[in-house]
Amino acid sequence: MTDFNPSLPYNDLPDLPPPREQLETTAILKRCIEARVAVAELKQAAELIPNSAVLVNALPLLEAQASSEIENIVTTTDRLFEYADIAEDRADAATKEALRYRTALYEGTKMVQRGMLTTDMAIQICSIIKGMELDIRAESGTTLKSRMTGEVIYTPPIGQKLLLEKLDNWTRFMHEDTDIDPLVRMAVQHYQFEAIHPFVDGNGRTGRILNILFLVQHGLLDSPILYLSRFIIQNKAPYYRLIKKVTHEQDWASWIMFVLDGVEETCTWTTDKIKSIRELMEHTAEFVQGRLPKTYTWELVELLFKQPYCRIANLVDAGIAKRQTASVYLKQLSDIGVLREVKSGRETIFVHPKYIELLTGEENVWVYYAGADTDSLDDGDLPR
To answer: What domains can be seen in the chain, in order of their start residue?
Structure first.
């Protein structure tokens, strides 16, 4: 499409599906198999963590931070973990918005476990992200501009009736074109949703949540643990360039290959991270049991991974100890170097530094606690 004008509403956005020859090239079919293997390995790795809450509490926060950063809403994973299980009103605006993304991901997962992705579901997800009730965009004037130059690079379709028609086609494609591989459909529906741009704000974050929910709905994942926004941040220029190529040239194949690359790379990286988390959990259990045999329980160690910013109330709520005993336990864990005691306003928080470093580090490695006995471990047991 050589005559595309980015300043005019793209009311002629083609309906789905795209031409089949663009979706089923030899390269795409080969890459699809490789990506599906990586997704299956991620799903299997997650099942080996005894308590799924360890991953479900952590990986969506990483996704929330990264997806928000794509939209220039910048907070830190430390702040997200600090405020993840308390009232959000104490957090700064960017942290609140990223935490709402995490909430939208959780709530969206519950929705797709009950039924299929729909336009109403997208509305609910975007409303949670923005912290207000939203509806499909009715007014005109929405444009996407370059952050560098201010130049208009895309004007989405206008007219609520047209947008609803486009969204109806989008949902039918997701659920009816089942002869197309789910990963290819995910890539196609993501472009289409962003091109429709149905909301005044929050479209990018809503679309990235819908990607993960699509995989959960189709049974490729059991929980929302695919940290795909990391790949997008690392590849922002090609992400936007290839979206533009679909719009201007209808080049679906390059876009689909990019998404499949992202799925495979992210799944492999996340699988590696989950393996390291499992290793660190086992090492922490052995270390605490050796240093604090009267304090140690598996439930206590597990809580340190479910709540890496731990409060006395977390132990009490989990039924591990009464308040006074819980305080003693956390101080003991701090004394042996598993936790670090920090002040946040008037409250004391016990941070699990090794786990936070593992979660937020690009390299999925960890080191032993100071003074840990490693003589009995062979090279196969050592963390990578």
So the answer is: 20-271 (1.10.3290.10), 274-381 (1.10.10)
